[in-house]
Amino acid sequence: MRQDIQDYLAELEDIPGTRIYTTERARQGYWLNQFCMSLMKPENREAWRTDEKAYLKAWDMTDQQKAAVLARDYNLLLELGGNIYFLAKVFSTDGLSFVQAVSTMTGMSVEDYTAMMNAGGRSPDGVRSIREGR
Q1: Residue 4 lies in a domain
Q2: For labelling, which of 39, 40, 74, 79 has a CA lying 20 to 30 Å from the CA of 97?
Q3: Nearest 5°: phi and psi at 65?
């Protein structure tokens, strides 16, 4: 039996703690990700560091996206269409490593997050479906 694409995409949203980067998220986050990529240029990083709010005014992002950037709420930014590889430009500009930034997304210390990943990552046991609570 062939599965409807909407049903398939809904299943992807049911994975706890995971945001699948779908075409819908890509469209939603287009300007957010363009902003992030702008930080590849030294002059843009300097403008960003000088006045973050002023720098964001030039980008056609939603108010929620801008607020999440200013708060460095990476989990919300993923929900709002951010791509982790583009968001890396923000935390790199802040002087954070990938491990440091991602540990903030898990609520774990850098040391605990590193130890978990070195031990093979998160356990597959536990909640595997938001909808079913299992």
Answers
A1: no
A2: 79
A3: -65, -45
Sign of CA dihedral 35, 85, 62, 21: positive
In a domain, 131, yes or no: no
Instruction: Say which residue the tokens 């460095």 belong to.
Output: 72
**What is the pLDDT tens value at each position of the chain, 134 positions in all?**
577 887 777 777 777 777 888 888 999 999 999 999 999 999 999 999 999 999 999 999 999 999 999 999 999 999 999 999 999 999 999 999 999 999 998 889 999 999 999 998 877 776 677 777 66
Residue type, 106: T
> How many domains does the chain contain in total?
1
